[in-house]
Fold each of these.
Amino acid sequence: MERVRWIKMLWVVAAGAGLVAGLAGCPTLLSPVVGRWQMESSGEVLNFSPFGSYTVEGTDESATWQWDPLASVLTIEFPGEGTQAFDARFEGNQMILSTGGQEVVRFTRV
């Protein structure tokens, strides 16, 4: 009986370690970026999936994004234009992206 309990405990620890390692390897899953965001300047709505892609609603445009939680940096791929890294900060229901200390774009969660 003790052996069975020991094996179950090892399995639970291994499964938990695998889950933590999986989440650490995919920081977009827990990112504050995930969700629907409306761009203040254009009104476009971007839908950031928890798996590192985004779509622009009402278009066929989609691409990838990455979130660096330690640096609060959002890297977005722009189809045909390359990638751009932005410093991101969150204030209430707003996401503000900037580069070089200058605000570039502001989004509101919808």
Amino acid sequence: MLKKLFNINPGEGLPTLILFIYYFGFVAIVITGSAARDAYFLNMVDRDYLPLMFLAVAIVLTLVIEIYSRLSKNRDLIQTTTISGLVFAFSLVFIQNQLEGWVIPFLYVWMEVITVITITQFWILAADVFNPRQAKRLFGLLGAGGALAAIIIGSSIKYYVSLFGSENLLFATIGFLGIVILMANLIRPYRNTNELKIHSTKKDKKQQSDKLFTPYLKSLAVIIGLAAIVSRIIDYQFKMTAVAVFPLQDDLVNFFGKYYAITGIATMIIQLFITSRLLSRFGVLIAILILPISLMIGSLGFFLSPILAAVFLSKFSDQVFKFTVHNASIQLFWIPVKNTIKTKLKPIIEGSIRAGLEGVSGVLIFIVVTIFNTPIHYLSLSIVLISIYWIKKSFPLKELYVDALQSAIEKRQLNFEELTLDIQDQTMVKTIETALNNSLKRLNTDYIDLYQLHWPERITNTFGNRNYQYFNDSWEDNFEFVLLKFKELIKSGKIRKIGLSNENPWGIMKFLEYSKKNLPKMVTIQNPYSLLNRLFEIGSSEICKREEVGLLAYSPLAFGILTGKYFNKNIPKNSRLDLFPRLKRYSNENSFKAASLYNDISKKYNISLTHLSLAFVNDRPFVTSNIIGATTIEQLKENIDSSNIKLTDEIISEINVINNRIPNPSP
């Protein structure tokens, strides 16, 4: 039933429900807390200071996030979420009982802190629960929980105010914080902790610091920054106009509640039915232009007729389009960016730079409106000018996006797993097709002889980790779907044969089973195989021998360990162990010990360790090809010469003795 209605697979229902309620609670916190803080500030503090609060928010957020990052580092996220949630709740209890003086502007800033930290914790937990494939199906549903909260809570505020008064609205916020804390603890059993976490090395960090702000990223930062500036100006106009129309605090709170309900309905409709279709049909350029054009139209309306209905249109566009079509487009723009660069720059661009520009906007608004007594609707002229510049900068951004996509495809850096929503951009699809065709042209061929899948999509014990624990990753069986797509490509003439990589016996047999349904057969498998890793022999070798699936053995020299150059733990500069220190499976104590014993055999029979290692792989009956690698001509010659060496039964016997003594030290 859940699968049919919401595309939820077995085992996903309960964690999805918990996170749905979690996100519902978060949005309820934002709505009740923001409505309260805005109404209190506008009614109890000099409104001229509102722009300066934007600056205060930017400064405090930067400091608090840095402090939070340091305090939460290497701590359990759920424990951190619980503690911070309790701190937020007790602080709001104090504020609720002290609603006067300095407490009001403090609340204005504090609500922004609560919002940013709470949403960050939510998405990190959600990413721990669902893998990228699940996220594409389910994150849209979680987002709908937020839209539902906006509708229900926004519509209910007026009833709450009539019963308890707007001065007690923070108690509702405190209650929703309790729901968030509860959901965070309920989701604990569903977090996945088996996936490999790759940490940056000093070399990685150095590479990240080189040429980070490319023209493409500068252009993207400009668009994000312009959106932040315009959003702050519209927010100021909206709040000042609203308080002028609704001077009573209860009426103002009710109006804000109605606004959140209306935007919630619109956001849900656009996110569920329009965003993906718009991007698929018209591409990212049209999608990115919707927000500035709508804001420009709304601002022109407010300039010509400075009434609440006119500025409501601008604020409505900013809230609805920014969190649907615009955010989806920005997400697509990040896809071609290399992960190491993205990890470093995305928080800077979308966090520090955006917050800084919002703060600067607040100062400028204060100067223009308060010091020079400029009517607030005149600020709309600046929005129109910024929007025109925004639109102008969007066109070169799209061109740079296409170039970045092509470059990422060619360098195999394009990672669709980074997308958290199942959306396609027409530009991306066309660019990928163009890039693939260009690759064929550069290879001076019309087809690919052998196309191999690089990794299984499901989470499995790819490298023979000992004591591996399987968990429910809710992977969907898509073997037949993959083969159907390959059938289309083979029919088009662009691919001749297909194969696998890093697959285990079960995966091999599943593909072979489906191929009997008049679908293409996997004819090769590219897996690691060497003297230090003979796991392929245990389950896969018989399958490949009997089913005629040839092994293309990679790492036959075990990352260079079986050349002897790392003996005495000497790691030459720019060697593979120097360049990739995180791959510890090749450099453990048993690997060096086994390699040393194999070296003794090579010396005994007067052949090099490299020749012994490669000749052994060449000799296996299930091996079709031995994938060698070389840095120098001398290494290449030595590798090729191994094809002329035939190991005797005596040598094979001595090799097996060592394998029995130290089996598979580099799985």
Amino acid sequence: MARHPKATTAAINAATLLMAFNQEIESVANNVRNGNWQSIPKDLLATGTGISNGHIDSTQAAISVASKVGAYAFNKIAKHFAKFKVM
């Protein structure tokens, strides 16, 4: 990681965060757009973990985990390729 500039690392990390938390970001944006400020924490929990009103939505939980695993893989692969010099 020491071979590539800080700006490249910051860009990769920012893209990783957007990929990992895309559903949570969308949930907050929808609530802000609709003026539902009070439901943001509840919706974040439901979107991020699949737990809503005491019930577990396994599909939502699987999508959330897949987003985070995919983002982690993207981060590692992007940082690996960022080490190479571009001519």
